[in-house]
Amino acid sequence: MMHASQTRSGGQILVDALKVHGVEMVFCLPGESFLPVIDALAGATAIRTIVTRHEAAAANMAEAYGKLTGRPSVCFVTRGPGASHAAIGVHTAAQDSTPLILFIGQVNSAMRGREAWQEVDYERMFGGMAKWVVEVDRPERLPELVSRAFHVAISGRPGPVVVALPEDVLEAVAQVDDGQAYRRIAACPGGDDLARLAAMLEASERPVVLVGGGGWDARACRDFQHFVEAFDLPVAAAFRRQDILDNHHPNYIGHAGLGPSPKLTQRIRAADLILAVGPRLGETTTSGYTLFEVPRPSQRFVHVHADALELGRIYQADLMINAGMGEFCAAAAALRPRGPAGWRAPAPWSGQVRAARADYLADQVPGPMPGRLDLGAVMTHLRESLPKDAILTNGAGNYAIWVHKFHRYGGFRTQLAPTSGAMGYGLPAAIAAKLLHPGREVICFAGDGCFLMSGQELATAAQHGAGVVVVLVNNGMYGSIRMHQEREYPGRVFATTLQNPDFPALARAYGGLGERVEETAGFPDAFARARAFAAETGKPALLELVIDPEAITPTATLAGLREAALQAGRG
């Protein structure tokens, strides 16, 4: 602890507070509005500063870092335009329940309210998006407010916090003690919650577990697996939460997200008990709120969530448990089935679990697709060749359906994908993952439209030694929008066609490797070269995969969608 007799600038007080809270890496794009912080970071050898080429990328990297570590991540951006660019990371952190603290430079306090240069009222701007927004008014309050920011970001349902830093507050000097490191606060299951849960499970004949949400760590995942194994429960993952239970585990039965297996959807609807552990049960996971009846599902329903305000918000459950994921899973792992006949394994529904697993494995066999390059075959090769701890990232676009459908995620934080559906997320997230885990392989998937929203961050990857491999799926259009366009306005194509650059040449311009792959047979060797280059040089490698535009999803073509729409009288 530093003593009040030591006079420091506000910028130094802030950086010292970050050290107290265990921050090891910050992401930023520098701005003159927080120069005292930049100067203090220059002397903070315990904190690695990653400078990006765009504020959106800095915020996305910080969000991915928060996902990977489970600790509040830190991003610094400048006022006005910088804050606006970084808003995407705040939105993703909010919807993905990721602990993130965004520090924003602010105009001098004496100029507030005059619409000074780049001035923004951040409480109004972020008030509906962040868990808490605050503007620091005096340097003496920095330890207090930074501590509160960390506590708010990590406690209960994790999420983003925004802290505005007026220039004069950072420049002013003060005598103030540092605080203590933050401590996570989380609710625990109530005294009879677990007993009621066990009784409901034992009375069930067709239970299904739906797992997701934020606030997970490796220990919570292990405890969750022990609980699942004790009761031999089938587990489906919520949208883009496929890495909570190792997909190789015999109790994993698939994901309820974009392009789910019809058999899995039918199995969930036919269940007599749903145990939702962690997810908000949002629009995508519930197929537009149609998977379960609103507000009262027909199944007996148990909902476990870290935020009491989320329980009962949409679905009225028979049992609502307000608890952090670690706290719930630790308690659930100690449960053992009893049942009216005192049954042990196999459970009465064990045959259903094996059948559901068989359906999942059958659904992982890709069918044929138009064109010379088969994306399903590419995913099969990756699934067979990548180590289980490889981290796969992606942004938004139809290309991601192949990734989520055909890859098997190897366990906690092998998947980084925004449930907010943000384009441009994959590359920044991959860079953050590689910087945190340099010994693990990190593969970024991106569409041609998605990639160019953050492609400049190849420069960041090269500068900081993040040897990621980018698999860029090029179909020459904004595929997701084109798909909806053909469904609603068949044949009327407008504003969705893309004219792209030479992607491999672009990668080489940043000092990386770039290759174009046009046939399925050429992918394995090209991928081997990309992996070797990234590992040996610490620089990014990019493979452009040219696919037939007709292959809009693993099970649909544009022509088929257009014909179905015309037959339905649209167009």
Notes on the structure:
This protein is α/β, with parallel strands linked by helices. The termini are far apart. The chain has 3 domains: 7-175, Thiamin diphosphate (ThDP)-binding fold, Pyr/PP domains (Rossmann fold), CATH 3.40.50; 193-362, 3-Layer(aba) Sandwich (Rossmann fold), CATH 3.40.50; 366-567, Rossmann fold. The mean pLDDT is 95. Strands 3-2-4-5-7-6 form a 6-stranded parallel β-sheet, with helices on both faces. A 6-stranded parallel β-sheet has the order 11-10-9-12-13-14, with helices on both faces. A hairpin with a 2-residue loop joins β21 (551-553) and β22. The protein is built from 21 helices and 22 strands.
* Structural shape: globular
Count of discrete alpha- or pi-helical segments spanning 4 or more residues: 21
Q: Please name the CATH architecture of the largest domain.
A: 3-Layer(aba) Sandwich
Helix proportion range: 25-40%
Structurally, the number of domains stands at: 3
The CATH class of the largest domain, by name, is Alpha Beta
Strand content: 15-25%
SSE layout and pairing:
Elements: E1 7-9, H1 10-20, E2 25-28, H2 35-42, E3 48-51, H3 55-69, E4 73-77, H4 81-96, E5 100-106, H5 122-126, E6 132-135, H6 142-154, E7 160-166, H7 167-171, E8 173-175, H8 193-202, E9 207-211, H9 218-231, E10 235-238, E11 252-256, H10 262-270, E12 273-277, E13 300-305, E14 319-322, H11 325-333, H12 350-363, H13 375-385, E15 391-394, H14 399-406, E16 415-416, H15 426-436, E17 442-447, H16 448-451, H17 458-464, E18 469-474, H18 479-488, H19 503-509, E19 513-517, H20 523-537, E20 541-546, E21 551-553, E22 556-557, H21 558-567
Parallel strand pairs: 2-3, 2-4, 4-5, 5-7, 6-7, 9-10, 9-12, 10-11, 12-13, 13-14, 15-16, 15-17, 17-18, 18-20, 19-20
Antiparallel strand pairs: 1-8, 21-22
